[in-house]
Specification:
4 helices, three-stranded antiparallel beta sheet, 3 strands, globular, alpha+beta
Amino acid sequence: MQNIPDKVHIGELIAVSQVFKLNPFQMVTLLEDGLMEVFETKEAFYEKHGKKDDYDELDDWCELNNGKIFTKPK
């Protein structure tokens, strides 16, 4: 991902880092390395991963109240 500040607000980063049990620096590193993804909408997430009950290909994922979804693949 390029220009992380254009995609992710620091408050979002801090909130999601608590869920994934990572610090914000680790989160930014994972985003920069493409090991974590951010989807602007639930529809964008469904377009890539489909709409299902379990996502075996993901280690974890988190949906914020603004609709953004952060995913961490296995």
